Amino acid sequence: MKRISFISFARSLSLAVWILNIGIAGNLQAESYPSRPINLIVTMDPGAGADTGGRHLADEMSKILKTQVIVVNKPGAGSTLGADFVAKSKKDGYTLLYATASSTVYTKATNPEIVTFDPVKDLEPLGLHCFFPVTMVVQEASPWKTFGELIDFAKKNPGSVRVSVPGQGNIDHLNVEIVMSLTGAQFTVVPFKGAGAAMTALLGGHGEVAAVSIPLAAPHVKAGKLRNLLLSNKLREFQDAPTLTELGYPQDLLYPWFALYAPSGVPDEVKKVLIPAIEKAVKNPEMASKLEKLGFMIGYRSPAQLRDLQESDYARARPLALKLGLGK
What pTM value is reported for the model? Predict the structure, then answer.
């Protein structure tokens, strides 16, 4: 009887261990990341540049991760409303941020009172997707054929050249301040409510120069209505337009960029899945081609490089904002 009982016990123990192992394996499989859809929070309205870039990237990531990446638009508060939502969300990798540079740099530099989170401490960088080059443009009929000619005139006639910008204290406004600081020229900055209004003012002759993004200016340049005098980044389409460093100045213009973040403290196991997937998606030639036709420049940067860019842009923007009397 004892032998039979021992055999029965052994068999029962083996069965229990087998069931336990199945359960553990099932739990591990259930908990593998990602096991359900991921929300990608975009900080701008549907149809905006960040929304376009975010949706293209979400499609690619869905294919790579084999789970749906759903774009959720949360605009507002200088593009920081969505970023704040992600910063305070659950740290499980199922709520990610598709941030503009304004979300993590420029609103904090110019309007820190409305930013309710710390862009460095509360957000974990996952990788840079792309950016918008910016330009200073004049009408094709303008007397200034080069950036140098514009600067010479503005130095000899301080304040006589009006530069249209899409708002007070935004990247384009800060870029005009950079140009004036580096060159000694003096412009009259005219802020408008949006990039479209700034471009309309230049085309209508209500200003001599506009500082705007390339996607907005490029169609008019190609149509022969406008001329690029200066770019933030070198572009194949506009080889004749220089950057500041090409002209011998110590720094280039600031430019908008779009990047991915997670809430700070997201597990390493999640990052090990997300970071390679993001890099692979960004470097997909088919997606890159589609976005480049819309004026984006694909420029993958690693999480560490993204953090460096974020911090260096803030270090440049904050003193300029204070000089303009912003964010005190």
Answer: 0.81
